[in-house]
Amino acid sequence: MPLALFRRSRSGRESRGAGLVHPVPHGAGAFHCEVADPMGQPMSGADVTVTRVDNGRVVAKLVSDPYGLVFLTLPPGRYGVMITADGLQPHQQTVDVVAGETLPLTSVQLHMGRPPELPQPGTWLFDPPHTAIRFIAKHVGMAHVHGRFTRFDGGIQVANDMADSRVEVRIDAASITTGNKTRDNHLRSADFLDVERYPYIHFSSDRFLYRGGTKWTIQGALTMHGVSRTVELDTGYLGMVNGGYAEELRCAALATAELHREDYTLDWRSMLARGIAVVGPTVKLELDIQAMYHSHDTPTPPE
């Protein structure tokens, strides 16, 4: 689907998208809009999804530009347009695209959405079958390596003030798996994780920082390979629901962080000099977490 870059003319009182001039392919029509945040300022990075109404097929996905503007050309027909941004109420509209015409500029202001209900105070334990600890690292000179840890435990102690909450995770380092037995054994060796000397990777938080919408930053210490470093988990809270083994109370979140291997004395340059094929100097860590509220009748997750 052709997407168009364009310039806009400015005058003191006209809309940010006024004066757009762009050729439209023969037989096609065009749609454009400007997206503003709750303060009325141009909003870049808003997600725009366009769906054909007659068959439900998604025909375009794009984001608003640094000026909050969106422009695309489409075959004639009726389309549903969905505009979303984290923490804001989504906007929906239907547009009829006509061949040879550019629809009048649409101005869309997104408003603050209602954030999901925070977990109730108490102890929440990770549910291993519904939790994943993954990592992505670039193999030097080759494609990315994807892996995960299969054995871990931990949970969240939710305080009355969410900012005072704590999270703790203990990972069995030997449970690392990348789908290649030779590589996994090497990662467990003294060249990398050295699981014989350092059997666990441990994270303990010391601060929850609210970033707006569903976003939080969790600061804490990650201990690996005998070294502790402060890291920040960029966390998106996914909400709370009753469901699972016995309709128990659950909450979910997705957290990511970037680790620098040399911070943990994993010297990739030295390994390269010795002719050892290694992953690159940074590793992206991803925690896809689901936790159950712990009470006297909380069911035990199956193995």
From TrEMBL:
Residues annotated as domain Lipid/polyisoprenoid-binding YceI-like: 123-292
UniProt xrefs under InterPro entries: CarboxyPept-like_regulatory, Lipid/polyisoprenoid-bd_YceI, TTHA0802/YceI-like_sf
Region (Disordered): 1-23
Protein origin, superkingdom: Bacteria
Pfam families per UniProt: CarboxypepD_reg, YceI
Family of this protein: Belongs to the UPF0312 family.
Name the record gives this protein: YceI family protein
Lineage: Bacteria, Bacillati, Actinomycetota, Actinomycetes, Kitasatosporales
